[in-house]
Design brief:
The protein is an alpha+beta fold and 175 residues long. It is 47% helix and 14% strand. Helix 1 packs antiparallel against helix 2 and helix 2 crosses helix 5.
Length: 175
């Protein structure tokens, strides 16, 4: 980072995401979709502000692919301390960002059910871990969507947990 710029401790972002999910899940028991939308909205605002700061000294991007590459390399490195492991596209407005070791999922335990989720005896540890991880991906989905929206690319962003701590983010650009 250039001199005079401000940094935030990595653990602060981890704890913010954990507390957002816990707090909204607790407040909105029985309404996990609403809790997810609220956490995603906060991530959206953070993403808009982060990308504004990160691009203020850069020339404009030429096309969507250049913006997505910026997200995968520069923004991802700033937030998650590494680049995206794989980027795939269908060249029709859909991009899949794959992270084989997503930092915010590395500390999740497969033994703990997600906040507010009923657990049946037939749940396997892997199934519980995937369900829990999904709740913690709303914030980064919002962050990505906020960054892209601020760069002039309206889109939807969804996430999928492959096998902890791997996940993928699917970006669909709106026409």
């Amino acid at each position: 980072m250039p001199p005079g710029s401000r940094e935030i401790a990595e653990s602060c972002l981890d704890l913010l995401n954990i507390e957002l999910v816990r707090s909204y899940s607790e407040q909105l028991k029985g309404r996990p979709e609403l809790a997810g939308r609220r956490v995603e909205a906060i991530g959206f605002q953070v993403g808009q502000q982060l990308v504004e700061r990160a691009t203020k000294e850069r020339p404009r991007f030429a096309d969507h692919l250049e913006v997505i590459k910026f997200i995968c390399k520069d923004l991802w490195s700033d937030v998650f301390k590494k680049q995206v492991d794989n980027l795939k596209t269908n060249h029709r407005g859909t991009f899949v960002l794959q992270d084989t070791r997503f930092r915010w999922l590395t500390r999740l335990s497969s033994d703990v059910p997600p906040p507010g989720t009923p657990v049946s005896p037939s749940d396997t540890p892997a199934a519980r871990a995937s369900a829990e991880a999904g709740a913690y991906l709303y914030f980064p989905c919002g962050l990505i969507r906020g960054a892209l929206t601020n760069l002039g690319i309206p889109c939807t962003v969804s996430a999928e947990v492959n096998q902890l701590p791997a996940c993928s983010f699917t970006i669909k650009i709106k026409p």
